[in-house]
Amino acid sequence: MTLTTEDALLRSLARTLTENAGATLQEMATAAGVSRATLYRFAATREQLLDAVQKHVLEVMARILDAAGLDSRPPLEALRQLIANYIEEREFCAFMISQFDPYIKRNAVAPFPEECQVFEERLDQFFQRGQAAGAFRSDMPSRWLTDLFFGFIFTLCESEYRGRIARVDMPQLFEGMFLQGAMA
């Protein structure tokens, strides 16, 4: 299996497991457009599949944060890159939030990994840096901005998946709501 094929399979599995945390191997294979035998060659058990997706998602999330330049770019530029990176990897983002977020619990099937806490801390620090630079409101805790950011990403991805918004509009919608809020 090539990297692009493996990535496509993992992306499909992430989407399937986000929608149905209890999906069977057959349901996962059908959603991925592969036979159960092909899925079995990739991972012999459901637990191995889940572990493979989780591991890949954590790697993708780390790459997203690294590529955004949270420590080196001006805050708004870094935020825009972060948004673009998350939208590009939206299936993995939705999986991470639905599987690991201890507050959502809707589909949470895995303990909250230490890596996710590191991701949160990195965003907390980024928002603190942006607040100090005057780019973000300083009257709100940076931790809350991090929580809002992840909540917005999940909601944005879900809305696009359900066809309620166009993918092309995702960056503008996210930035507009996150930075300006809902007030006219």
Automatic annotation (TrEMBL):
Keywords of the record, alphabetical order, are:
DNA-binding, Transcription, Transcription regulation
**Sequence ranges assigned to domain HTH tetR-type in this UniProt record:** 3-61
Q: Which domain of life is it from?
A: Bacteria
Which residue numbers delimit the DNA-binding region? Answer: 24-43
InterPro entries the record matches: Homeodomain-like_sf, HTH-type_TetR-like_transc_reg, HTH_TetR, Tet_transcr_reg_TetR-rel_C_sf, Xre-like_HTH
Q: Which PANTHER family match?
A: HTH-TYPE TRANSCRIPTIONAL REGULATOR BETI, HTH-TYPE TRANSCRIPTIONAL REGULATOR RUTR
Q: What is this protein called?
A: TetR/AcrR family transcriptional regulator
What organism, scientifically named, is this protein from? Alcanivorax quisquiliarum
State the taxonomy lineage: Bacteria, Pseudomonadati, Pseudomonadota, Gammaproteobacteria, Oceanospirillales
